[in-house]
Design brief:
Nucleotidyltransferase, domain 5; 5-stranded mixed sheet; about 35% helix; single chain; alpha/beta; globular
Length: about 240
């Protein structure tokens, strides 16, 4: 199966084409610019590098969150547009799942941490059993201390939150804290494609209306809705 995968959940932007589970072409960038300025050009470049036409694709995969609200909307709306136009299936993949998959294979617990700003992190813990991810709890947005409070065993940390709060983690867990290689803290679209394969095989694809961002946390606009204008200014 030939898949185009996209990740725009964080500051990085990644696009890949895989075929039968093997990587054909991939492009990843990290920039302060909005992903809408370069995502379509990246898609064109990766498809060209793969030596195919976009009509040759069998399906699409995209990270659906958690992550940047704007980034997620850009990636999901772009994938929806291509999938609808080509009448091809699409699959949503958790950004935290993708990070956990990129952690080195180990019997240790794996903790995906993404910087959620406001002194919080998006996080989830996993076991990796024969390359299969097993979630240990629901994805949440909490303070770094809250994310770490139940971890009392060797654990591999991965993601932008692991980088940002590295010293906090080390102070809390000491020698039980391990960190994924620096390059693995950025979500790769090829990982997103890999995780989507099982869903495609099980026909667990999303209806286009059901391919929506998984924000976890409400946006500032939602939090402020209905509050007196004076209170909004104080926040």
């Amino acid at each position: 199966m030939r898949i185009l995968a996209v990740d725009t959940a964080t500051k990085s932007c990644s696009v890949a084409v895989t075929e039968k589970g093997s990587l054909t072409a991939e492009l990843t960038t990290v920039t302060a610019q909005t992903h809408s300025k370069h995502l379509l050009n990246m898609i064109r470049s990766v498809i060209k590098a793969a030596g195919i036409a976009i009509s040759d694709l069998d399906g699409f995969a995209v990270t659906v969150g958690p992550g940047s609200f704007t980034g997620l909307r850009i990636g999901i709306s772009s994938v929806k547009g291509f999938a609808v136009a080509l009448d091809k299936p699409a699959v949503g993949v958790s950004s935290l799942d993708a990070l956990a998959q990129q952690a080195a294979p180990s019997s240790y617990l794996v903790c995906s941490l993404l910087d959620a700003r406001k002194d919080e992190v998006y996080f989830c813990t996993y076991r990796i059993n024969q390359e299969r991810l097993i979630k240990e709890k629901e994805e949440m947005v909490v303070s770094p201390d809250e994310a770490l409070k139940d971890i009392n065993q060797p654990c591999i940390f991965v993601g932008s939150g692991a980088q940002l709060y590295r010293e906090v983690i080390k102070a809390r867990l000491g020698k039980m804290a391990y960190f994924a290689p620096q390059s693995q803290n950025i979500i790769r679209a090829s990982t997103v494609a890999y995780l989507s394969l099982k869903k495609f095989e099980n026909d667990d694809t999303n209806e286009f209306g059901g391919l929506t961002p998984h924000y976890i946390r409400k946006s500032d606009a939602e939090l402020n809705f209905g509050k007196p204008r004076k209170n909004r200014k104080q926040q």
